[in-house]
């Protein structure tokens, strides 16, 4: 091919492509001019950012001290602060970074561990100001993110102003919450990724690595703060994979450079976030070193690391006369009996269940099947296949199995388990149980014929009926017991995992004061403690799932419009009625979902074709190429941060609120700004007019609903007229008193 022919072919290539030896290739590495144009900050930009920061701070601080009662997520956060102060162990409902931050702020404000709530020594305004700071930085950072995406200064100002006048972001930011800090971390991660990957003229440079480190730090903090942080992590990993695809196809980038980029990404986006996650949980564990009821959810190996736990230094050998707690291996529930009797039971049969928390009614005394063979003061160890009787320590009743159907699992092959009798009860073969060690589920280094605490799993075989004690996640009827308890029954052919038990707490007066060799000493690795705590967090959410009859599994689909809002506070006090209601700015929400839906419908098929290394983009100018790049990133970010909340499993496990939509909304606003930039590049007057109109609508909505943001006085008629959708369920009668004044 002659040089003249080569020049003609190159002229016909789409923007961003160059002619290679065998094929055209996409230039994945941006030019220095593009990098400078998108990162430069003009004097006008700086003045705008100073003004916007001042205005954002002022709008956030209005009425921040009201109300003086905890609302939204504040009750849970204040209770967590109290737990950290007292050092009591708890399983957090979400990754604990934000709770740790609020705790440190509370200690800085001289908090002395008062009763959960807004006590006199809790500077709640100071703690609420943290959300204000996060909001201000979010607004400022959104300007840089839009500039990085290819928007000019004026367009970035437009997008930043949409964020500034977004009602729901301001409403939630005025109070202690997890969403506002998470949105900020999400933006920092995107900002670092843009600077370090999308635009750096030297993709393997030290500066690019620093920006990627910033992104990795932010992702690590995000997954340590909010469950949705996993969405941000997945988003950046997907972008990184796509980026590597194009970098590998750019023949200007050497193989060694591609390798260095890959290593940098692996270190910053995989290793670094996990390191931060483990570090945050390490701090959490160091601050919660005192035993509490929630410690019951953890394994005995975990509990043994808590100095005042029930199993710390527990007796190892299991022997007759000892008082033990017997725990189900699969569910973690304790074999439990109480003073509740089985309904319609003339024989005063007491309910035996699986109870999730430590309690005195979980303790059983191990006796021989023939009580006369019990020799006081003599040590006699329980071994594999030993036949025992279990005497309930509190009620002095014996565990028994009868050929009757259990309350929940009423199948013919299931038998009823209960406790009955008294200390002098003669009993029968139905009170005799053989303990069978299951070696595959035992971890003891001693002989498998010995039964010892914690490390040896066994089955409990009733000799009268031939069945095995088992439990599962099915709960007993709520009117049978005082709390949620699992069913325990006896089955002739049980699933092995559901029929395994082990001894946790083991007290024996003959061994408790013996040498240290008779006691179990655990050294559970710290990383395993973090893994177990994370697992229990997820498991508790899973067990908290509601049935589809109790929850609207499609609630998330009402957020993008938004059809619903959230009442954070309401007071009907005469002369002082007020409402704080979180509702999104309709103009901004409509713009975000409208532009993204249009883009996905019209451009997604074209984007899929670009996955082929031989596909060429059918664009011939920089503006359109920038628009396509920015919009598909915004659409992907919106989808990844929104779609998980539409899954029934997530809806049933989490307490979802419209605030969960805020990260997705930020990507929607980025899409709006990028679209306006493209329109303005084609027709500056039309684009500018549209931006002014959209911004005016957002500002008008902000002013119209400011009473719901700040809990201010409002006219009742204006309040009723403001209800655009039926599910905006704030009670306008709260403002009735103002009409009479």
Description:
- Helix content is 44%, strand content 13%.
- With 741 residues, it is α+β, with helices and mostly antiparallel strands.
- It folds into 2 domains: 8-284 and 558-739, no CATH class; 314-520, Trefoil (Acidic Fibroblast Growth Factor, subunit A).
- The chain has a 6-stranded antiparallel sheet, with no helix packed on it. Strands 4, 5, 8, 9, 12 and 13 form a 6-stranded antiparallel sheet that branches. A two-stranded antiparallel sheet has the order 1-2.
- The longest helix is centred in the middle third of the chain and has 33 residues, at 255-287.
- The mean pLDDT is 84.
Helices and strands in order, then pairings?
Blueprint: H1 3-11, E1 17-19, E2 24-26, H2 32-39, H3 43-61, H4 74-86, H5 97-108, H6 124-148, H7 153-164, H8 167-173, H9 179-198, H10 206-223, H11 229-249, H12 255-287, H13 300-303, E3 323-328, E4 334-341, E5 350-355, E6 363-368, E7 387-392, E8 398-402, E9 414-420, E10 433-437, E11 458-462, E12 468-475, E13 485-491, E14 501-507, H14 526-543, E15 566-571, E16 578-582, H15 586-609, H16 622-642, H17 648-653, H18 662-682, H19 684-704, H20 706-710, H21 716-721, H22 736-739
Antiparallel strand pairs: 1-2, 3-6, 3-14, 4-5, 5-9, 5-13, 6-7, 7-10, 8-9, 9-13, 10-11, 12-13, 15-16
